[in-house]
Amino acid sequence: MFVAAEDYEDRGLSLDARLIERPAATFFMTARGHSPDADVRDGDLLIVDRAEQPTPGRVVVAVVAGELVVRRLPAGWREDDGLELWGVVRRLVREP
Fold this sequence. Notes:
The structure is a single chain. By secondary structure, the protein is mainly beta. It has a single domain (17-93), classed as Umud Fragment, subunit A (Ribbon), CATH 2.10.109. The chain is built from 1 helix and 5 strands. The protein has a 5-stranded antiparallel sheet, with no helix packed on it. A hairpin with a 2-residue loop joins strand 3 (59-64) and strand 4.
């Protein structure tokens, strides 16, 4: 329950401020197709940070055969595995 307060200050809502940590390295992408291992569905909006450090278990955008794909990094993944990472998915926006 929300209650108005006399000292309440209406500052508005900025999704940029709430969802983007590094604006210069952040990109918005729309998923085409499904990626079940990453729980990404067709039409999802991905907020991808190219400066984020990839770690096993994170959802990433990678280049495979010249195309961008969304995958979850496997547990034993290492940087020298030859997968060309494009960025780390920081947020996913999905229609209800």
